[in-house]
Amino acid sequence: MLLSNVNRRKAGRFVPVVLAGLILAACSTQGPQTPAVNVQAPATGTSAYYLQQMQQSSDDSKTDWQLLAIRALMAEGKYPDAGKQLHTLPQKVTATQQQELNLLKAQYAVATNNSAAALPLLKSTDVSGLSADQKTRYYATTIAATSNQPTLETVRAYIALQPLLQGDAAQKNLDATWQTLRKFSQQQTNNFVFNANENVLQGWLDLLGVYYRSNGDQNTLKAGVKDWQTRYPDNPASKQLPAGLLQSMNMTPASTNTIALLLPLTGPAAVFSQAIEKGFEDARNGVINQVAAAPAQPGTATPAAGTAAPAGAQGAVTPPATTTVTGSANAPISATSPTDPNTVVSPAAASVPGTTPAITAASATPATAAAPAPAQPETAPASSNAQIKVYDTNAQPVAQLIQQAQNDGATLVVGPLLKEDVATVAGLSTPLNILALNEPGSLQNHPNMCYFALSPENEARDAARHIWQQNKRMPLLLVPSNNYGTRVANAFTLEWQKLGGSVVEEQTFGSVADLKQRINGNSGIPMSGTPVVVQAPAAAAPAAVSVAGLTFNAPEQPAPVTDTPASGKIDSVYIVASQNELSLIKPMITMSTGSRSNIALYASSRSSQAGAGPDFRLEMDGLQFSDIPLLSGANPALMQQTVKNFNNDYSLARLYAMGIDAWTLANHFSQIRQQPGYQINGDTGILNASQNCVINRTLSWNQYSQGQIVPVH
Question: End of a domain among 452, 480, 495?
Answer without folding.
Answer: 452
